[in-house]
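Holo prediction — farnesyl diphosphate.
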Amino acid sequence: MIDLTGIPIGEVVKKSGLRHIAFIMDGNGRWATAKGQPREFGHRAGAANFKTIVRYCKKIGIECCTVYAFSTENIKRPKREVEAIMTLLINYIAEAGDERDIEFKFIGDAFGLGENIGKKCAGLEKETEGRPYRLNIALNYGGRAEIVQAVNRLILEKKQSITEEDISSHLYTAGCPEPDLIVRTGNEQRISNFLTWQSTYSEFHFSPKMWPDYTTDDVDFAVRDFAGRGRRWGGV
Ligand code: FPP
């Protein structure tokens, strides 16, 4: 194993081959509750931190970032909380085209959240198409549902038998390398229906911090941890 202590983080990213990082941004609600605030307060802080962390990942040379913003199950939350998250998202979309170099892709069924949101997501994707850094925002997303929609599209294409490559190329994340590293904050250690197909060989990093408290130093820590792992892809 190479000793990467003292090596600048951008070099560590390069040497470790880390191209795609994904975040399960967990803990907004608990963070707010601990401060005696409503859960929406936590989502506001979480959305602000999401911008900081995404910009930082781009700065240190990671090509692709995926964030879990809203799962297919999150719709079961109280109406007020769902509306607060949707408002944050709509406000973000309104300004996001100005994020330099970022190509946005909404993975999941954005139109399932309403025509208005679906159109805004599609508009941002179109506006930013072809930019060099990819940001996947998982919205109304479920990993199993993503596989099912891929298979249904293959059926429509009248495929008689399918390969792994067929499924991969019909996922929402087509065109992205598979996630090398998946980080979950909020002191929970599970995958929660996130990138089910794509995470087969991902490394996992769990942080006890709540998402609004997660910093760029914590990203460095996760990246260095990743760089120290021995990835064997099922070989020896
Ligand atoms: C998990 O924390 C977080 C979510 C379900 C929503 C994440 C949303 C954001 C960070 C804002 C999204 C906005 C943009 C602009 C992408 P939790 O509520 O499950 O926290 P808890 O486990 O403490 O209850």
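READOUT: The mean pLDDT is 95.
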